[in-house]
Write a structure and sequence with these properties.
- The protein is α+β, with helices and mostly antiparallel strands.
- The protein has a domain of about 50 residues.
- Strands 2-3-1-4 form a 4-stranded antiparallel beta sheet.
- It starts with a strand and ends with a strand.
Length: about 100
Amino acid sequence: MNPHAIIVTIKLKPGMGDAFRPFIMENGETAVRDEPGCQQFHIMTAEGDPDTYFFYEVYDSADALDTHREQPHFKKFRDGTKDMIAERSVQSCTVLKT
């Protein structure tokens, strides 16, 4: 079975980039460290736009992603940032080659 990935784009409300950063950094670091099904969690910002973030996350399977979304660190991220986010898009992908 090929790994399951998501590409997430988050557009924050203006000026929220610095407040958002610690939440997403903790979520990504904890996912890779503590979740056996999380292979990668890359966090990026758009050049020249600190209020736009991109995540590239790779999991063993779609079930492993579902497990991620039930973890306390994900819920802390979700609840702590919900009022900061203006737009969110998530693209699910099948990894063909790493």
